[in-house]
Write a structure and sequence with these properties.
The chain has five helices and two strands; from the N terminus they run E-H-H-E-H-H-H. The protein is mainly alpha-helical. The chain has one domain (5-98). Strands 1-2 form a two-stranded parallel sheet. The longest helix has 15 residues, at 84-98.
Length: 99
């Protein structure tokens, strides 16, 4: 028996990401998103094949994640340019206003 880490990106239509969308804080096309069905398929695949780590995210972000392993500073700069940093700043600000 093994263990797997499942790393979904922004999951469209459900959960935390859906609440962000409802607040007007959705990601842009470059950040990508995934679906519940795709995440579920990846979970089943991880169980069947005893995969240690599974990343299910929109295609545009996957190369950025790989780049982050080789050059974290460069990946951080790209994330800033495509809007990831700003999205999470707006999310934090909206939570501060709600508290």
């Amino acid at each position: 028996m093994g263990f797997s880490v499942i790393c979904p990106g922004f999951v469209a239509g459900e959960g935390m990401y859906q609440r962000m969308v409802e607040q007007g804080l959705s990601s842009n096309r470059l950040m990508g998103s995934t679906t519940i069905d795709k995440v579920a398929d990846k979970v089943l695949d991880a169980i069947r094949h005893d995969r240690p780590e599974v990343i299910e995210n929109g295609t545009p972000v996957r190369p950025l994640l790989a780049l982050g392993q080789l050059s974290p500073r460069l990946a951080e700069g790209i994330a800033r340019r495509i809007g990831v940093t700003e999205l999470f700043r707006r999310l934090a600000a909206s939570r501060d206003r709600a508290a």
